[in-house]
Structure formats: C-alpha cells, structure tokens
Amino acid sequence: MHNGKDSNDQTNNLTHPAVAELCTNFYYGASSRIGHEYKELFGSEVPPLAVALAIVVIKCCLDEWATGTHTSKSFQADSYRIQYGDVVDSINTVATSTIHCAKFRAARREWASNGIARVSAAPVVQEFRFQVHID
C-alpha cells in the first residue's frame, strides 16, 4: 500500500491513494460518519488502526476479484485477522522510524482535514473517478 517515493527517495508507506480515498470517504463522507461523531479520536487525524482496517477492506475487495470474476468474500474477523495483524505490524514498524512516522502522520492529518472539509449530507460516491494514461 505504497504511494511511490518522495523527493528524498524515501518510500511513502501506507499512503496509497486508494487508502486515502477510502479513509476520507468512509470515515468523513457524511456528517453522521464516525470521523464527525468521534472528533476526539478522528478530529485531527485518521487513527492508525482505522487505516489498518481500511487497508484490510481493500484487501478483501481485491480478493473478491482475484480470479478476474467477482466472487463475494465474507469480511469477518476470522477471515482477515492475519492480514489485519500484518498491517498493524507494518504500522508499528513505520512508527519506529522518525522519517516514516512523520510522513504517515502527515498523510493521516491531511485525510482527516480533507474529509472534514468536504462533508455532505450523504456519502460522496460520485467523486470517485478513474483515469488511464496512454503514453
């Protein structure tokens, strides 16, 4: 779940645009969402464990299309406990690095700020756009 590298050639860990969009829309996409209901936890940044949950949700969605044909997968703790633990371990590893911890925190703060700024009465589904670049 990387997002390339920065100008110092350091990996942008755990900040893939899909993670950013899911965190912003799921946690903050409407005034009744958890990011607004629990401002003491989500007001200044997306909590690290909430990011872990979002990444595992993305993993489940990818698993549903792993064969090229959609096959529903049950998103339950028993099915994704190991993956969640692996993501939490990755977050803990990032937290041990001064550089990567600061970058991850800045991303989570940006996601929260963006989510709070674009709150609407309903989830922001129509904002998802896909593009290809033909070079």
TrEMBL record:
Residues 5-93 form the DUF6532 domain. InterPro entries: DUF6532 (IPR045341). Pfam families: DUF6532. This is DUF6532 domain-containing protein. It comes from Athelia psychrophila. The lineage of its organism: Eukaryota, Fungi, Dikarya, Basidiomycota, Agaricomycotina.
